[in-house]
Protein backbone atom coordinates (compact mmCIF):
# COMPACT_ATOMS: atom_id res chain seq x y z
CA UNK A 1 0.00 0.00 0.00
CA UNK A 2 1.38 3.41 -0.96
CA UNK A 3 2.08 6.06 1.70
CA UNK A 4 -0.78 8.19 0.35
CA UNK A 5 -3.21 5.25 0.54
CA UNK A 6 -2.04 4.50 4.09
CA UNK A 7 -2.55 8.13 5.08
CA UNK A 8 -6.15 8.21 3.81
CA UNK A 9 -7.05 4.62 4.82
CA UNK A 10 -8.77 5.59 8.11
CA UNK A 11 -11.23 7.74 6.13
CA UNK A 12 -11.59 5.51 3.06
CA UNK A 13 -15.39 5.26 3.41
CA UNK A 14 -15.94 8.95 4.09
CA UNK A 15 -13.55 10.43 1.55
CA UNK A 16 -15.46 9.36 -1.60
CA UNK A 17 -18.73 10.78 -0.21
CA UNK A 18 -17.04 14.06 0.66
CA UNK A 19 -15.25 14.25 -2.69
CA UNK A 20 -18.30 13.45 -4.85
CA UNK A 21 -20.59 15.94 -3.13
CA UNK A 22 -17.84 18.58 -2.86
CA UNK A 23 -17.06 18.37 -6.58
CA UNK A 24 -20.78 18.40 -7.36
CA UNK A 25 -21.27 21.55 -5.26
CA UNK A 26 -18.37 23.35 -6.95
CA UNK A 27 -19.61 22.41 -10.41
CA UNK A 28 -23.24 23.32 -9.71
CA UNK A 29 -22.32 26.68 -8.19
CA UNK A 30 -20.56 27.73 -11.38
CA UNK A 31 -23.86 27.44 -13.27
CA UNK A 32 -25.78 29.26 -10.55
CA UNK A 33 -23.93 32.50 -11.28
CA UNK A 34 -25.26 32.59 -14.85
CA UNK A 35 -27.72 35.46 -15.28
CA UNK A 36 -28.97 33.87 -18.50
CA UNK A 37 -29.78 30.56 -16.80
CA UNK A 38 -31.60 32.35 -13.98
CA UNK A 39 -33.58 34.57 -16.36
CA UNK A 40 -34.55 31.92 -18.93
CA UNK A 41 -34.72 28.73 -16.91
CA UNK A 42 -35.71 29.65 -13.35
CA UNK A 43 -36.95 26.12 -12.61
CA UNK A 44 -33.58 24.62 -13.58
CA UNK A 45 -31.80 27.30 -11.53
CA UNK A 46 -33.89 26.31 -8.51
CA UNK A 47 -33.28 22.58 -9.00
CA UNK A 48 -29.53 23.13 -9.35
CA UNK A 49 -29.66 25.39 -6.30
CA UNK A 50 -31.30 22.72 -4.16
CA UNK A 51 -28.77 20.19 -5.45
CA UNK A 52 -25.99 22.62 -4.43
CA UNK A 53 -27.45 23.08 -0.95
CA UNK A 54 -27.86 19.32 -0.52
CA UNK A 55 -24.28 18.76 -1.68
CA UNK A 56 -22.96 21.34 0.80
CA UNK A 57 -24.99 19.88 3.65
CA UNK A 58 -23.51 16.45 2.92
CA UNK A 59 -19.94 17.36 1.92
CA UNK A 60 -19.16 19.83 4.73
CA UNK A 61 -20.02 17.60 7.73
CA UNK A 62 -18.33 14.61 6.09
CA UNK A 63 -15.21 16.79 5.66
CA UNK A 64 -15.12 17.15 9.44
CA UNK A 65 -15.32 13.36 9.80
CA UNK A 66 -12.49 12.95 7.28
CA UNK A 67 -10.38 15.49 9.17
CA UNK A 68 -10.98 13.66 12.45
CA UNK A 69 -10.14 10.24 10.98
CA UNK A 70 -6.92 11.17 9.18
CA UNK A 71 -3.88 11.90 11.35
CA UNK A 72 -3.35 15.66 11.09
CA UNK A 73 -2.11 18.48 13.30
CA UNK A 74 -4.78 20.02 15.52
CA UNK A 75 -4.57 23.32 13.59
CA UNK A 76 -5.51 21.56 10.33
CA UNK A 77 -8.45 19.74 11.95
CA UNK A 78 -9.61 23.08 13.38
CA UNK A 79 -9.22 24.74 9.99
CA UNK A 80 -11.30 21.98 8.39
CA UNK A 81 -14.02 22.50 10.98
CA UNK A 82 -14.00 26.29 10.44
CA UNK A 83 -14.16 25.91 6.66
CA UNK A 84 -17.06 23.47 6.94
CA UNK A 85 -18.87 25.72 9.41
CA UNK A 86 -18.42 28.76 7.17
CA UNK A 87 -19.65 26.84 4.14
CA UNK A 88 -22.73 25.46 5.90
CA UNK A 89 -23.64 28.75 7.61
CA UNK A 90 -23.35 30.92 4.48
CA UNK A 91 -25.31 28.37 2.44
CA UNK A 92 -28.00 28.03 5.12
CA UNK A 93 -28.42 31.82 5.29
CA UNK A 94 -28.69 31.96 1.48
CA UNK A 95 -31.34 29.22 1.60
CA UNK A 96 -33.24 31.07 4.33
CA UNK A 97 -33.16 34.30 2.31
CA UNK A 98 -34.50 32.70 -0.86
CA UNK A 99 -37.21 30.82 1.04
CA UNK A 100 -38.36 34.10 2.63
CA UNK A 101 -38.35 35.92 -0.72
CA UNK A 102 -35.29 38.11 -0.16
CA UNK A 103 -33.60 37.41 -3.49
CA UNK A 104 -31.03 40.24 -3.24
CA UNK A 105 -29.67 38.89 0.07
CA UNK A 106 -29.88 35.33 -1.26
CA UNK A 107 -27.51 36.26 -4.10
CA UNK A 108 -25.12 38.01 -1.71
CA UNK A 109 -24.98 35.00 0.62
CA UNK A 110 -24.50 32.57 -2.25
CA UNK A 111 -21.55 34.69 -3.36
CA UNK A 112 -20.21 34.31 0.19
CA UNK A 113 -20.81 30.54 0.15
CA UNK A 114 -18.87 29.66 -2.99
CA UNK A 115 -15.39 30.74 -1.79
CA UNK A 116 -15.67 28.31 1.12
CA UNK A 117 -16.13 25.55 -1.46
CA UNK A 118 -12.94 26.71 -3.16
CA UNK A 119 -10.66 26.65 -0.10
CA UNK A 120 -9.44 23.12 -0.84
CA UNK A 121 -8.79 23.94 -4.50
CA UNK A 122 -6.97 27.18 -3.68
CA UNK A 123 -4.80 25.40 -1.11
CA UNK A 124 -3.82 22.72 -3.60
CA UNK A 125 -3.17 25.29 -6.36
CA UNK A 126 -0.85 27.26 -4.08
CA UNK A 127 1.04 24.05 -3.28
CA UNK A 128 1.47 23.33 -7.01
CA UNK A 129 2.34 26.83 -8.17
CA UNK A 130 4.43 27.84 -5.14
CA UNK A 131 6.57 24.77 -4.48
CA UNK A 132 8.46 26.56 -1.67
CA UNK A 133 5.36 25.98 0.49
CA UNK A 134 6.26 22.30 0.75
CA UNK A 135 9.72 23.15 2.12
CA UNK A 136 8.39 24.67 5.33
CA UNK A 137 6.58 22.14 7.56
CA UNK A 138 3.78 24.46 8.76
CA UNK A 139 3.38 26.48 5.55
CA UNK A 140 0.55 24.24 4.37
CA UNK A 141 -1.39 25.01 7.55
CA UNK A 142 -0.81 28.74 7.02
CA UNK A 143 -2.01 28.54 3.40
CA UNK A 144 -5.12 26.65 4.49
CA UNK A 145 -5.94 29.23 7.17
CA UNK A 146 -5.22 32.10 4.79
CA UNK A 147 -7.61 30.62 2.21
CA UNK A 148 -10.32 30.36 4.87
CA UNK A 149 -9.79 33.96 5.98
CA UNK A 150 -9.92 35.13 2.37
CA UNK A 151 -13.11 33.10 1.81
CA UNK A 152 -14.65 34.80 4.83
CA UNK A 153 -13.71 38.40 4.01
CA UNK A 154 -13.13 38.84 0.27
CA UNK A 155 -16.76 38.36 -0.78
CA UNK A 156 -17.93 41.10 1.58
CA UNK A 157 -15.22 43.45 0.36
CA UNK A 158 -16.17 42.64 -3.24
CA UNK A 159 -19.89 43.10 -2.59
CA UNK A 160 -19.56 46.31 -0.58
CA UNK A 161 -16.67 47.95 -2.43
CA UNK A 162 -18.86 50.29 -4.55
CA UNK A 163 -20.49 51.70 -1.42
CA UNK A 164 -17.09 52.33 0.18
CA UNK A 165 -15.80 54.55 -2.63
CA UNK A 166 -15.85 58.25 -1.67
CA UNK A 167 -17.86 59.33 -4.72
CA UNK A 168 -20.57 56.74 -4.08
CA UNK A 169 -20.57 57.41 -0.33
CA UNK A 170 -21.18 61.12 -1.00
CA UNK A 171 -23.98 60.20 -3.40
CA UNK A 172 -25.50 57.86 -0.81
CA UNK A 173 -25.28 60.60 1.84
CA UNK A 174 -26.98 63.11 -0.47
CA UNK A 175 -29.74 60.65 -1.30
CA UNK A 176 -30.33 59.93 2.38
CA UNK A 177 -30.54 63.65 3.21
CA UNK A 178 -33.22 64.22 0.58
CA UNK A 179 -33.35 66.78 -2.20
CA UNK A 180 -31.37 69.98 -1.81
CA UNK A 181 -33.46 73.16 -1.90
CA UNK A 182 -31.63 76.33 -2.79
CA UNK A 183 -32.98 79.48 -1.16
CA UNK A 184 -32.21 82.75 -3.02
What does this structure look like?
This protein has eight helices and no strands. The protein has about 180 residues and is mainly α. It has one domain. Helix 5 packs antiparallel against helix 6. The termini are far apart.
How much β-strand is present in the residues? under 5%
What do the pLDDT scores average to?
Answer: 88
Radius of gyration: 21 Å
What profile does the largest beta sheet have? Answer: none
Q: Portion of residues in helices?
A: over 70%
SSE succession: HHHHHHHH
The total number of structural domains is 1
Task: Decide which structural class fits the backbone.
Answer: mainly alpha
- According to DSSP, the number of beta strands is 0
- How would you describe the shape? globular
pLDDT < 50 runs, ≥5 residues: none
The tally of helices reads 8
- Cα separation of the termini: 89 Å
Note the main attributes of this structure:
184 residues, mainly alpha, 8 helices, globular
Topology (elements, then pairings):
Layout: H1 3-8, H2 15-32, H3 35-40, H4 42-69, H5 74-99, H6 103-129, H7 139-164, H8 166-177
Helix pairs in contact: 2-4, 4-5, 5-6, 5-7, 6-7
Question: How would you sum up this structure in a few lines?
Answer:
Helices cover 81% and strands 0% of the residues. With 184 residues, it is mostly helical.
